Automatic annotation (TrEMBL):
This is TetR/AcrR family transcriptional regulator. Gene3D superfamilies: Homeodomain-like (1.10.10.60), Tetracycline Repressor, domain 2 (1.10.357.10). Residues 11-71 form the HTH tetR-type domain. It comes from Streptomyces johnsoniae. SUPFAM superfamilies: Homeodomain-like, Tetracyclin repressor-like, C-terminal domain.
Length: 199
């Protein structure tokens, strides 16, 4: 007789559970989300959560990856697809106004807000690194435009890139405060008026 496999098989849909965890972390942030709340919305017990995902921090790291793949790619696409920094940043800010206020999901950006007031430095540092990665990508294409003569030679590439990052974070927080798409689009247009004119 063949020996029966030991242990109980998982009795839940891992992908669906991960979606539920993403929503909770997105809505409440890392620190305010308890393991008890996670197990409730994911429909699993704590032992199943730990067996499938590890601890809360490991689950959150997987959630952040999933969030980036499903909801954060608009930034990467704009940087990769647009021919100039000016057009890429215009697209990023305008699309952010739509992405951060899409009906049927939490407002704002998980990467911008999930670690606010979080005492776990590793969690905060991971999200900070993702935001800094965006700023570095912005700076890279701005420097390319300066080299190509599309922006004035004296343009502060690092400062301009950080300005865009700051506007994105501000738009995310405004969305979480209930500001709607039209108002955020106005913010995007105001920010774009500060963009340096071509020489």
């Amino acid at each position: 007789m063949a020996e029966r496999a030991r242990g109980r098989p998982r009795s839940f849909d891992r992908e669906a559970a991960l979606d539920q965890a993403t929503w909770v972390f997105w809505e409440r942030g890392y620190e305010a989300t308890s393991v008890a709340e996670l197990t409730r919305v994911m429909g699993i017990g704590a032992p199943s959560l730990y067996a499938a995902f590890g601890d809360k921090r490991a689950l959150f790291e997987e959630v952040v990856e999933r969030f980036g793949e499903r909801f954060g790619l608009f930034i990467d696409r704009a940087v990769a697809e647009e021919p100039t920094a000016s057009r890429a940043m215009a697209r990023v800010l305008r699309e952010a106004a739509a992405e951060y206020t899409t009906p049927g999901r939490p407002p704002g950006c998980l990467v911008a807000s999930a670690a606010l007031n979080c005492p776990v430095e590793e969690v905060a540092a991971g999200l900070r690194a993702r935001r800094e990665g965006n700023v570095r990508a912005f700076e890279r294409i701005i420097r390319q435009d300066i080299a190509a003569g599309l922006l004035p030679a004296e343009t502060d590439a690092a400062g301009l890139a950080r300005f865009v990052g700051a506007v994105l974070q501000g738009m995310s927080q405004q969305a979480r405060d209930g500001v709607g798409r039209a108002a955020l689009e106005a913010v995007a247009e105001a920010a774009l008026r500060a963009w340096p004119a071509a020489p």
